[in-house]
Amino acid sequence: MNTMTAxxxxxxxxxxSVESVDTPxxxxxxxxxxxxxxxxxxxxxxxxxGGLADDPSLTPRIPGHEFAGVVxxxxxxxxxxxxxxxxLAYFYLVCGHCPAxxxxxxxxxxxxxxxxxxxxxxxxxETAVIPAANALALPDGATFAEGAIATDGLxxxxxxxxxxxxxxxxxxxxxxxxxxxxxxxAQLAERRGARVLAAEITDDRLDHVDAVTGPAVVPIDAxxxxxxxxxxxxxxxxxxxxxxxxxxxxDMLRAGWEALAIGGQVxxxxxxxxxxFDPPLREFVEKEASILGSRYATKxxxxxAAALFADGRIDPVVTDRxxxxxxxxxxxxxxxxxxxxxxxxxx
Length: 347
What we know:
Layout: E1 3-9, E2 16-22, E3 30-40, H1 42-48, E4 67-74, E5 86-89, H2 99-102, E6 127-131, E7 135-137, H3 144-164, E8 171-175, H4 180-191, E9 195-200, H5 203-212, E10 217-221, H6 227-233, E11 242-245, H7 250-259, E12 265-268, H8 281-287, E13 290-293, H9 299-310, E14 320-322, H10 327-335, E15 343-345
Parallel strand pairs: 8-9, 8-11, 9-10, 11-12, 12-13, 14-15
Antiparallel strand pairs: 1-2, 3-4, 3-6, 3-15, 4-5, 5-7
C-alpha cells in the first residue's frame, strides 16, 4: 500500500490528528515493521508536550515508541533481520560504538541521538520504520501486547531493580503505583521477595493496584497530611528502604524521603521540567541515604523483560485495547489524570 493511517502531532504541545500519510520506506540501515501493538502512555504524553525535545523542526511528528510487530522489509545493509521476524522496539537512538554501548550500557550512550518517536517518526501508525539496531528480538511465547509493555513498562522497572539491588530484605515504596511502570514494578519487586507499598491519590487508582497485584503489595493513600507517617506505619516502623518516584510528585517525594529508612535509596524516573527536590545535606548524612536517577533500560534488559512475560513470571496489565482513531482521546484522558495501567493501540 502507498498510504497508511497514522496519528500525527502538529507541533510540540499541540494536537494529535488521525491522518492518511505516505507509507514509509526503510533506509539502508532500517527496517519497516507492521505495527501489531503500541502503548499509549504518560511518557509519550510527556514527549507530545515537548518534555523530551521541543525543536520545532522535528514536527509534524508521528509519536509512539513502546511497540512490537513483524518485520515487513529491510534496508540493503541490514543482515541480522529478515521479513517475518517478530521484534520489539528500543526507545533510545544510540550509536552502538561508544564505550558505554560497547559495555552493554546503551542507556548511557555518549553519542545519544535522541528518542524514537521524537527525533524520528514512531509507531502510532499501521507501519513504522525503525533503525535495525533498535529492533530487538521478541522472545517466543511473548505476545505483541506483552512486547509493547516490555519495551518500557517492564524494562524500566527491571533496570530500577537491578540498579538498587531489590531483594527480600527490602521494603519498596512506589509513588504512582497505578501507572504501567508502577504496576509492573510492584509485581517485579514482589517476585524478588520485597514488601511493596503502592502509593496513589484516588480510590479508583488504589483499587486498580489492589486488583492487579498480590497480597504482599500494600496500598497507601497518598492524599492529605501525614503521608510519611502512614508509610512508616505500613512497614515494621523503620520505613521503606527503596522509594521509587514514577510521576514527579514533589510533595509525595518529600514524604517518601521523610519516611525513608536509614541507608535507604530514593530513585527518580521522571524527566519533568522545573521540578526540584533538595533535602538538606545533613539529612543525607543522618540517613546515610542515596538519591539515584534511573535512565530507561539497556537493550538486554528490554529483551529480558519480554522473557519475563513470555514464561509467565510477570503478568501483563492491559486496561484497554483501542484503534488508532481512539488515540487522541486516550491522550486527553492521560492529560487529565483519568487513566491508569496500560492502554494498547492495535492498528
